[in-house]
Specification:
The chain has 544 residues and is an alpha/beta fold. The protein folds into three domains: 278 residues, Glycerol-3-phosphate (1)-acyltransferase; 82 residues, no CATH class; 138 residues, no CATH class. Helix content is 54%, strand content 8%. The two termini are 48 Å apart. The model has no long low-confidence stretch (mean pLDDT 87).
Length: 544
């Protein structure tokens, strides 16, 4: 099914700058102010801002699901994060909830969390977010579209930002996105001031209690193909920006120390915004288009192969593309807040690489599909076949568990992700939530069904393996009940293992599909592709 495109659904409402407001989903439009105003405030006495048990549980579940959802997860720069003060992480925002999730899961500290208002009012998700003391935020889009009054928005946002600032001042981590909304662009859109105001308020609170001033951490979030299951992700913690004492005036310290929100000086806010933009924009793709970015990634592959050093990880691909972007885009250093979309790179080499990358992309391939010297498409790795065969055999043996416990989650995630009106950037968020809550809600039911089927077929099983599993602990009613209960509990780790196994089998399927795509590519298209790549290689040689 065609995924709804929010860009096509915009109603033409403009902000005070004359820019079109982002489309609001049905959920974002549904503002429940009474529930929002009663959102529990965080506690800073323990290791977590919210419930210790539920926070630890949700982190554990999210870690498990992330390992299934992503083929590779790499983080870097965590050693830069100071442990003696709070930190506010800021990144570009293109993948919904999963942006914040990947930052939080790879950060050494627990987070105080601010999120779009409806995340704390939804029926099931809201219960969890309130347990984690997530603080709701009303965006400018909701206010200007009439979702609430300006007084309500100011009160709620002031309350939430103050709670987040207090958490940061107590040494917790936090993540806020300066763009204010998730989007589909290959470059960062206009910065909002919420993160800067929050970290300055946190600095004032820290200053009032003699604590170290927090840091602002620019971050790179890199998803190979964000909406794909088993894509690659690299979480990049940049160099922390230390808040300067001079940017936190005494009158702000006096104001926030009473526990009420006070606006930081505008000059401090804008100074910090400009510094953040200067450090953060280079950590994003920051290209004229996604086609151009794919061209840079391919150029990195071709160049790396010519130098006998092809990129061996997603991180290496991103770093190589970044290096090439900085080399060929002379306009990159323009950090004017109104300069949003970078100029298109005019180098013929990049244009050719973009053309070749488009051919590969249209055929479901990328630079990884080239052979060692970029003269042809790579052949399949036969060495992977034995292990893949073992995995497929084991998966077939566990297929009933998969069909009963995991397939309903996959179907639910696919339906929700493909039908949401929040854009393709929310697709994987819904799939992740389906996996998370599906595990909690579906697995008890699926375990009961599986145990009931095994109980029904106990005689057949005993005849086949000469073991009556129902009498494993004895023949009394209590013992047989214990056997049934223990098997019911055992189905949870079995379901988890089956999910992990499915992800590996999916990788094998994707690899096989990639090989078949290579076979299906027409001779004419193949010749066109490698004619362009040959010209690229010649230009690279001439440049030396």
């Amino acid at each position: 099914m065609k995924h709804p495109d929010p860009e096509e659904l915009n109603d033409g409402v403009l902000d005070h700058r004359g820019e079109e407001l982002p489309y609001l989903s049905k959920s974002a439009k549904n503002m429940k102010m009474d529930m929002l105003l009663n959102t529990p405030l965080p506690s800073y006495e323990g290791k977590t801002p919210g419930s210790y048990f539920w926070t630890r549980l949700i982190y554990w579940i999210c870690h498990r699901i992330s390992k299934v959802q992503y083929r590779s997860i790499e983080s870097s720069g965590t050693e830069r994060i100071p442990r003696d003060r709070g930190s506010l992480c800021c990144a570009w925002h293109t993948n919904g909830i999963l942006d914040a999730l990947q930052i939080a899961l790879n950060h050494p500290e627990y987070f105080v969390i601010g999120a779009r208002h409806d995340l704390v009012t939804r029926p099931i998700l809201g219960w969890w977010t309130r347990k984690m003391a997530v603080q709701p935020v009303v965006r400018k889009a909701e206010l200007l579209r009439g979702g609430c009054t300006e007084e309500e928005a100011n009160f709620l946002n002031g309350r939430s930002l103050m709670a987040l600032a207090s958490g940061i001042s107590h040494g917790y981590g936090c993540v806020l996105f300066p763009e204010g909304t998730s989007h589909n662009n290959s470059y960062m859109i206009r910065f909002r001031t919420g993160p800067m105001r929050t970290v300055l308020a946190a600095s004032a609170l820290a200053k009032s209690t003699g604590k170290e001033l927090p840091v602002l951490i620019p971050m790179g979030l890199h998803f190979r193909t964000r909406e794909y299951f088993r894509t690659d992700v690299w979480v990049e913690y940049g160099e922390p920006i230390q808040i300067e004492d001079g940017d936190v005036p005494q009158n702000l310290v006096d104001a926030v120390s009473t526990g009420s929100w006070s606006e930081p000086p505008a000059e401090s806010v804008f100074k910090l915004r400009d510094k953040l933009r200067e450090d953060l924009v280079p950590l994003s793709p920051n290209t004229h288009s996604w086609d151009e970015y794919r061209g840079l990634l391919l150029l990195g592959h071709v160049k790396g192969r010519m130098e006998h050093n092809p990129p061996k990880s997603w991180r290496a691909e991103v770093e190589q593309a970044r290096s090439l972007r900085n080399k060929y885009n002379s306009g990159l250093k323009s950090m004017n807040v109104d300069d949003l979309q970078p100029n298109k790179i005019t180098e013929t080499l990049v244009a050719k690489s973009e053309q070749a990358a488009r051919i590969l992309h249209e055929n479901g391939m990328d630079g990884r599909d080239l052979n060692f010297d970029s003269t042809s498409l790579a052949k399949p790795e036969v060495s992977k076949l034995p292990l893949a065969t073992i995995r497929i055999g084991l998966f077939i043996a566990l297929l009933p568990v998969f069909l009963i416990s995991l397939l309903p989650q996959i179907i639910l995630g696919r339906i929700l992700g493909d039908s949401t009106d929040e854009g393709i950037d929310a697709r994987t968020s819904y799939q992740f939530l389906a996996a998370m809550f599906g595990s909690i809600l579906i697995w008890p039911i699926s375990s009961t069904i599986i145990v009931a089927l095994l109980y029904w077929q106990a005689g057949t099983i005993e005849h086949a393996i000469h073991i009556n599993w129902i009498e494993a602990f004895g023949m009394s009613q209590f013992s047989m009940g214990l056997s049934i209960f223990m098997l019911w509990l055992a189905m949870f780790p079995v379901s988890l293992f089956t999910g992990q196994l499915f992800s590996l089998v999916w990788d094998d399927y994707v690899d096989l599909r990639g090989y078949l795509r290579k076979l299906k590519m027409s001779t004419q298209t193949r010749n066109e592709l490698f004619q362009i790549i040959t010209e690229m290689k010649q230009e690279l040689l001439n440049a030396k």
